[in-house]
Write a structure and sequence with these properties.
Layout: E1 12-13, H1 22-30, E2 35-36, H2 39-48, E3 52-58, H3 69-80, E4 84-90, H4 111-125, E5 144-147, H5 149-152, H6 157-163, H7 170-173, H8 177-184, H9 191-194, H10 196-211, E6 213-219, H11 223-237, E7 242-246, E8 259-260, E9 263-264, H12 274-282, H13 289-296, H14 301-308, H15 315-331, H16 333-348, H17 351-354, E10 358-361, H18 363-368, E11 370-371, H19 372-378, H20 385-393, E12 397-399, E13 402-404, E14 410-411, E15 420-425, E16 429-435
Parallel strand pairs: 3-4, 3-6, 4-5, 6-7, 10-16
Antiparallel strand pairs: 1-2, 2-7, 8-9, 11-14, 12-13, 12-15, 15-16
Amino acid sequence: MLSDPSTPHSAETGIMTAFRSEFLNVLSERGFIHQLTDADALDARAAKAKITAYIGFDATADSLHIGSLVQIMMLHWLQQTGHRPIVLMGGGTTKVGDPSGKDESRQLLSDETIAGNIAGIRKNFSSFVRFGEGSGGDGPTDAILVNNAEWLDELKYIPLLRDIGRHFTINRMLTFDSVKMRLEREQPLTFLEFNYMILQAYDFAELARRHDCVLQMGGSDQWGNIVNGIDLGRRIGDFELFGLTTPLITTASGAKMGKTASGAIWLSPNRVSPYDYWQFWRNTEDGDVGRFLKLFTLLPLDEIARLEALQGAEINEAKKVLAFETTAVLHGKAAATEAAETARRTFEEGEAAEGLPTHAIDASKLETGLPLFAALAETGLAASSGEGRRLIKGGGARVNDEVVTDEQRKLTVADLRDGAIKLSAGKKRHVLLTIS
C-alpha cells in the first residue's frame, strides 16, 4: 500500500542550502523550496543531465491568476537552467475537482468550456516558458503542453479500480488535509472528488512513462498528492520520482497572496489590464518587496539585495521596480513602460494625467489617521460622511485603485504614493489627496 505521506523518501522542509545543480540552487536562493523528497538524489540527477518536471493546472477559468505565479515561475527557471518543463492541463481532472483547500464542491464544466479555458491559459504561459512547434517540444528543453484528458478520458472504471485503486487505502486517504478539512467542517465531499488524488497520482506515473518526467512540483497543499504519485510510480513502473513544493505565499500582514477586495489578480490582460497589474505590485507592503522581487522577477540577486536594503521613502523606488519587472515579464516591456508612465502622470502630475482634481489636507490628519468616509466627504466624492460610509459598504470606494469595503478604514501616510493618495467613487470620479 502507499506509504505514509508525512515522512516520504527523506523529505526535507524549508531547505536553504547549496546544491550542485543550478536548477535547485536558483530555486533555493530565491525562496521557492518548502519541501523536497530525496534532495541529494534529485540534485545529483539535475546536475548530471537534463530532467523533465511538471506542474498541473486545472482549467476552471480561461486565465490563471497570480496565485499560480509561483508555480509558473518555477517552470521558467527549470527551463532557463537547461531542463524541460511540462505544463499539464487538467482537461480530465477539471471534470472531477481538486478538494485541496476547498470548502465546497467545484462547479462541473462542459467539455467545450474546459477546452476554451485551456486555450486561454496557454496564452498565460507564453510569457514565461518557450514552447516548440505545436506545443510538442521540438528542442531538448522546449516546454510541452499536455492535457491529461488524453489518458484519463480513456480509462475504464473496473480496470482502474483493480490496477490502480488497490494501491490506495481508505484509511490513508482519510488522513489527507483536503479530506479532513471537509469532514471536520461537515461540508460534503463527493465520491467524485474523493477520487481526485488517485487521478493526480496516475498523472505522474503516466507522464513518467510517456515523457520520462521525474519531478512533480506544486504548492504545499499538493504535498500528499505528489507523494501518492511518487509511490504509485514506483509500484506500477519502478520509476524513480521526486517531489518539490513551495511555501504558502502570504503577505507581510498575513493576507493570502493575490486576493484583494476587488477579486483575484488575473494574468490575462482582458481580465486585469497591464496598468491594474502594475498597480497591484506597486501597492506591495514594505515587508514583502525583497521576497517578491526574488520570486516574481528575473532580476539578479545582487540587484535585488540592493533594492531590498532601501529604507524609508526610498522603498517606493523598489516597489516601482517590482511593479515594472513583474509587468514586463507578463505583458512585455512596452506595456510595463506605459503603465509606469500612466501611474507617474496620475500620481505626480494630477490633472495632467486624467484631469484629476486635487485636494490638499494638513499632514497631521494622516499622521493620526483620517477616516476614509470623512475624506470622501471632504473631497466632494460623497455628499456627507454618511454617504461616504454607504459608498464604502457598497464597494464603490477605492484607495489607490484598490476597492475598500471596511467602513473603519483610515488613511495614513502609508497610503501616499509619490506624495498623493488617489481616492475614487465608482469608476469615473477621482480626486488626488495631497499634503499641504
